[in-house]
Amino acid sequence: MSDSASPEPASRPADSGRPRPQYGEYATPEEQRARIQQPAPWQLETAGPVMTDLPDPAPAPGHVAPVPPEPRRRPVDRIVTIALLAYGLINVVTSVPAFLDYSAYADMMLGMLGVDAELSDPAGARGWAIAAALVLVIGWAITAALSVWSLRRGRLTWWIPLTAGIVVTFVAGALMAAPLLGDPAIWQALVDSGPGLG
C-alpha cells in the first residue's frame, strides 16, 4: 500500500520546503488513529466504575469444573531422592554418636594427620560437637520435609537432598574442626610435624 495516490489533507498547509510524508510520519494523532482505526482516548473512558469484586457466576447445570492436571510422575527422580535421603539418614545416625564422643573423634583426626598431640580442653569442645550433631539432625529433617513436599507436587527433587547434604556436611565439619583449629598446642604440633616447616 502506498500513500502516494492519496491527496494530502486540506487541513494542513502545503510546505514546499519539506518532503512529502511517507507512511504517516508527519500525520497528526487523529489522522494516525483514522488510518489504524483505534478509538480516541475519550472513547476509551468508561461511564462508571468497574466492579471487580463480583462473585463468579454459577456454573451452568451439567457443567463440570475443570480438574487441575495431576502432578507429573518422575519415577527415576523419586528413586534417586529417596536413595539420597536414606544415605543422609545413615550418615546422620552413624555420625551423631561419633560427634558426641569428641575426645575419640579428635584422637582419630590427629592420628590421621600424623600429629602426636592431645586436645587441651576436651570439655570445651563438647559444645561444638553437640552443635554439629544438631546441625546434622535438623538439616536432615528439613531436607526430608522439603523433598517430600516437592515430590508430592510432581517437581524435580533429587537436587534438594544433594545440595542440602553438601551444605549440612560442610557446616557440621566446620563446627567439628573449630576446637582443633583453635587449640594452640595442636597448631604447634602441626607446624612441628610438617615437612620443611620446622
Structural classification = mainly alpha
SSE string: HHHHHHH
Task: Work out the oligomeric state of the chains in this entry.
Answer: single chain
The residue fraction in helices comes out at 55-70%
Q: Count of DSSP E strands?
A: 0
User: Roughly how many Å is the radius of gyration?
Assistant: 37 Å
What would you call the shape?
Answer: elongated
Region (Disordered): 1-71
InterPro entries: DUF6264
Transmembrane segments: 79-100, 128-151, 158-181
Organism: Microbacterium arthrosphaerae
Helices and strands in order:
Layout (H helix, E strand, L loop, with lengths): L28 H8 L4 H4 L30 H26 L1 H12 L8 H31 L6 H23 L2 H10 L5
Keywords: Membrane, Transmembrane, Transmembrane helix
InterPro entries: DUF6264 (IPR046231)
Protein name: DUF6264 family protein
